[in-house]
Amino acid sequence: MSCIVDGRPIDATPLPGQCLRTFLRDQGSFGVKKGCDAGDCGACTVWLDGEPVHSCLMPAFRADGRQVTTIQGLGDGDALHPMQQAFIQSAGFQCGFCTAGMIMTAAALDETQRGDLPRALKNNLCRCTGYRAIADAIHGIGAAQEDVAGEACGASLRNPFGRDIVTGRAAYTMDVAMAGLLHIKVLRSPHAHARIRGIDRSAAAAMPGVVAIFTWEDVPRRLYSTATHEDHLVDPDDTYMLDDVVRFVGQRVAAVVAETEAAAAAACRALVVQYEPLTAVFDPEVAMQPGAPVLHDRGVTGGSNVYARIRGEVGSVAAGFAEAEVVHEATYSTSRVQHAHLETHGSIAWRDAEGRIHVRTSSQAPFIVRQKLSHVFALPVQDLHVFTGRVGGGFGGKQEMITEDLCVLAALRTGRPVKWEYTREEQFTAATTRHQMTTRVKLGARRDGTLTAIDLRVVSNTGAYGGHASETLAASLGTPISAYRSPNKKADGAAVYTNIVPGGGFRGYGASQTTFAVEAAIDDLARTLGIDPFAIRRRNMIRPTDWIESIWSEASDVAFGSYGLDQCLDLVEHALASGRGAPRPEGPFWAEGTGVAMAMLECGPPTEHRSGAEMRLTADGGYHLAVGSTEMGNGSVTAHRQIAAELLQCRAGQIDIDIADTDRTPYDTGTFASTGTVVAGQAVALAAAALRDSILDYAGRHAGADRAACRLEAEAVVCGNHRIPLAALHAAGTADGHRFVARRKAYLTPRSVAFNVHGIRLAVHRATGEVRILHSVHAADIGRLINPMQCRGQIDGAIGMAIGWALCEHMVHDDAGRVVNPSLRNYRIPSFADIPASEVMFADTYDRIGPLGAKSQGECAINPVAPAIANALADATGVRFAHLPLTPDRIYDQLGGAE
């Protein structure tokens, strides 16, 4: 087959049945991404003779004699295509994994299509941005500002990797070519609970291309948890790399290593497994009953499926309810959902000539992964090198060690590099999810709305394994309760094992689920009392003179570094009252309602979290920054460079940066729990300040000037009347033996709190259950905005994800525990048409704890959105829909059918 790819003649023969996407990647066109291989996401979009196509659906042979244009050939040499430039100016990407396909679609739109983006972009999905910045890019609305020395913080600077992202040159985990690369495929359990009595591998081992087969008998028998935390004791060691007992449909049974993915997959199908089915349990309430089948018998749970139980009380809720004039009690539940980051889980491992193992992986916590690999394989930690390329989204889903272990095992046993990349179906059936939680809320109040008692019962379905179970449960009983003042608070929470795909870390991390319940209950109480929803929140919300107190009487390191909840409520209330947004649709069946919800989130987890940063002055007068946190679309790289530039009085563009590499960067616990700015950013600030002082100290000595008379400029130090270029100062210092380098560490204590308020005006069709969001308003108190454009983008993305959680996303399991909708098409994350443009506003605060006044922003915005939608729906209909998602069929069943 002969074709032209990005102006290059290609003469190659596709494999039988090969799609154009994999063929192009075989030719080195790594800008063509895999998000689904089913035509659902558009990440693989290319032009075929100028027309956009999903290359994963196009047989490669159909490109014969034709011109193929990928993102790497869209521009003209070094000159960017106007659409590529527009995406940089508007920050039309975050992780950037969808960006190549999105730009290829957008660049082909005509004027009419640009006027109807919901239709024009229906085949391109983005999980990060909430689509608002993408629309801005297509319409030429740019917010990026120039990089000015001394004015870095507070400026909407461009992403330093933007050019590589929009041209397809940014290297994600799988975007490398390696000689001799082997591939892993995994046979997965068809049973929710079974014991493996035998595996016949003879037929599989004899198949062409098969190099090795691993079962539970071939792997280290060391228990561990896939969850990655600094304190490994918060997660149960309940997992083997491969086990002789399977506990959910989709669990690993055996791994095949072969020359090609196809050969490995065929060999998996040839394995013959003898299973002894065991009784399964899917409902956590049933799993807690005496006589229920116990999933783990190794002493983790003491003969019970309750992995973790948290109980606490401050004051006396019995006395509080006795004092109450009104009591509201109801049960609310949230669904099990998937992260759906467009880059699936994957790793590549190899052993070098010195025997060290290198692991290139898509991880939010490469340093913790290294520790876990050291434990599992009994290897010295210095023999392991773990690093990330660019990570295509995480949202907590990559706070796990999911693919790295089998890749390392295969590399050790075969001596060759090994790759394992999840399919989209595996993401649904074998990765982690948000914990499904059911929350009973009981509130007591006086007639004026003052709360006298808060009592919660939370049951969390952790699935077959307990990673993140106790920590998400603790978070669910933390800030959602702490946000309200009451002298009497009590909660009882249980995290329960069931035979369902495991839960894990997810944006909002447990607080989202109970924020939904508490905020719905507060609204229900307000309706009972005839009190305005804003008024009842103002009466009971935490204030800056209060203790931040949930159900534990022990002292905490959580403190008010700043306080802007009152501003957030005011901003949202005024915006909703403005009349802005879309009008209610015409027709007698449309009902309109308004809802509000608020949320408070601690800036980081209560367990240990630490980060280091190193800064150097380089010989050319620039700077180099090394920090161990991962960039996955959260914007940490941009923020870190801006923080350093602010302190060094230079341009952010003068700072080169290395990230997330256990060989090249200082230790970092991981980029999760909203710590990228408040911990890693604090380490950067400390290192930059120390380097600044080192430069000024030496400059004063070198110039014979008082240190106080010296100041840094963008490219020089000024000492009195002397101006010394930084390159010259570096040369002089090096000759004198002075080292212009500083390394500092930051620890997550004390922890500030961020606030978010969301307001919704919507219309619901009372006969069909259709919901249309007419006005979406969000106000955030995140301290000083390091990069306003980026901060808004993070909130837009969180709102978009929350709307999906509220209205459509739901992993459905059948009676045997199988996920029945394991694809983007049937699970349906929001597309462009589903997400309205939100008004995003910020409280005017400066945090005394966070770096340069900043607080966490990445995940807290997700928490109040779903309850605001549910509250607006209740306002419109007079009916409480207490269980997510609020899909049309559920609304119809409760409302439309009767009408």
TrEMBL record:
Aldehyde oxidase/xanthine dehydrogenase a/b hammerhead domain location: 167-279
SMART domains assigned: Ald_Xan_dh_C (SM01008)
Domain of life: Bacteria
Keyword Secreted listed: no
Pfam families cross-referenced by the UniProt entry: Ald_Xan_dh_C, Fer2, Fer2_2, MoCoBD_1, MoCoBD_2
Keywords annotated in UniProt: Iron, Metal-binding, Oxidoreductase
InterPro entries per the UniProt record, alphabetical: 2Fe-2S-bd (IPR002888), 2Fe-2S-bd_dom_sf (IPR036884), 2Fe-2S_ferredoxin-like_sf (IPR036010), 2Fe-2S_ferredoxin-type (IPR001041), 2Fe2S_fd_BS (IPR006058), Ald_Oxase/Xan_DH_a/b (IPR000674), Ald_Oxase/Xan_DH_a/b_sf (IPR036856), Ald_Oxase/xanthine_DH-like (IPR016208)
PANTHER family on file: XANTHINE DEHYDROGENASE, XANTHINE DEHYDROGENASE SUBUNIT D-RELATED
Family, per entry: Belongs to the xanthine dehydrogenase family.
Protein name stated in the entry: CO/xanthine dehydrogenase Mo-binding subunit/aerobic-type carbon monoxide dehydrogenase small subunit (CoxS/CutS family)
